[in-house]
Design goal:
rod-shaped; mainly alpha
Length: 82
Amino acid sequence: MKDMNTFLSYLFVAALFALITLPSFVGFARDRVIDRQLRRAAQRRTQRRVSAQDPAPASRLMVGIRPKPCSSNAGGAGVAGV
């Protein structure tokens, strides 16, 4: 009978320890999830900045190219003096 009481005492202490530490572990897990989300958001933000600063190769080719002026003045819409 004394062995059973000892076992139940140890079981009670272990269960009490688990109940006390459980909120801490749950909070730690949530913090890790939030940290991961923040890290991903920061990576996306830096990728957007890099892609915005570095135009696509096709747009680099278009730099300095102007559209040809229209030679016909059909309908009166156009630039005066061309």
